[in-house]
Design goal:
By secondary structure, the protein is mainly β. 7% of the residues lie in helices and 38% in strands. Pfam families: PD40, Tricorn_N.
Length: 310
């Protein structure tokens, strides 16, 4: 065999090796590059045609369908002890708030009203659930006991008030409202008093999410022309842009330890679940299908079992 032929075969072999390597190392490929999650993430997906609440688990290759119902189920929120999930469902004809066990069993309707109830969020002590409802004609922020009793209107405003989120200490509620003409992030006391505009700019700011330490709020904003993830330092008022991509990024959710932020993005063609560091670095894709995957919610740490005194 001539030296020229040997060089030719060597080059072909190298190219083949590189091609095969690239095939098995696509960005976000769970086999080679995607690190395991540190906690479970509930999210919404219509990968089977209708919306259901699914669960991403650290050592499971495929997400688990928790609601598995022909009606649309969405907007999952964990109880602070990680034992229950509140979610919105259309299974009774209109949007209602349901509660289920963390494994999807025992799904119970909490609201049972003719209006649309959505966007539930548990209080840090687990005793109450805040949510959005149009039962009086427009979207308002309500709070009820965790069993669905004693609903109270907190906002009572002609605008649309949605996506409420408790502060980690339970003293405040952040929410999205269009009472100033465009959608802004407001914060109010937990009893609905003293609403304050935090974002105050001409573009849309939505989906507030408190950091576990209560010092930051992450949200999605179109202030730079397309939806991106930002964080607001509540002490200094400083704003940080975390994502910078031609795709739309929304629905941020902090990990329990505050080191990561999950969100949904269509940067790869359709909406998928991503996780990035809390400073915006190293975004990693965790779902991969042709349906919509969005609105992630991290599972809180489970309570430690009591120690055996013996």
């Amino acid at each position: 065999m001539s030296s020229r032929t040997q060089r030719y075969i060597s080059v072909i072999g190298l190219l083949l090796f590189l091609w095969v390597g690239s095939f098995f190392a696509q960005p976000g490929d769970a086999r080679t590059r995607t690190p395991p999650l540190t906690s479970e993430i509930a999210f919404v997906s219509n990968r089977r045609g209708n919306e259901d609440v699914y669960l991403l688990q650290p050592r499971r290759s495929q997400p688990l369908n928790l609601t598995n119902h022909p009606a649309d189920d969405a907007t999952a929120s964990w109880s602070p002890d990680g034992q229950f999930i509140a979610f919105r469902s259309f299974r009774n004809g209109d949007a209602e708030i349901y509660r289920m066990n963390a494994d999807g069993t025992n799904q119970v309707n909490l609201t049972k009203t003719p209006g649309g109830d959505t966007s539930p969020a548990w209080s840090p002590d687990g005793r109450r659930i805040v949510f959005s409802s149009d039962r009086t004609g427009n979207d308002e922020i309500y709070v009820m006991d965790a069993d669905g009793s004693n609903p109270i209107n907190l906002t009572n405003n002609r605008a649309s008030d949605r996506f409420p989120e408790w502060s980690p200490d339970g003293r405040f509620i952040a929410f999205t409202t269009d009472r100033d003409g465009d959608r802004e992030i407001y914060v109010m006391n937990a009893d609905g008093s003293n609403p304050i505009n935090l974002t105050n700019n001409p573009e849309d700011d939505i989906h507030p999410a408190w950091s576990p330490d209560g010092y930051f709020i992450a949200f999605s904003s179109t202030r730079n022309g397309i939806a991106e993830i930002f964080t607001l330092d509540l002490e200094t008022g400083e704003l940080f842009r975390l994502s910078n991509h031609p795709g739309r990024d929304a629905g941020p959710a902090w990990s329990p330890d505050g080191s990561k932020i999950a969100f949904h993005s269509n940067r790869d063609g359709n909406f998928e679940i991503y996780v990035m560091n809390a400073d915006g670095s190293n975004p990693i894709r965790y779902t991969r299908n042709m349906g919509f995957d969005g609105f992630p919610a991290w599972r809180p740490p489970l309570p430690k079992p009591p120690e055996n005194p013996g």
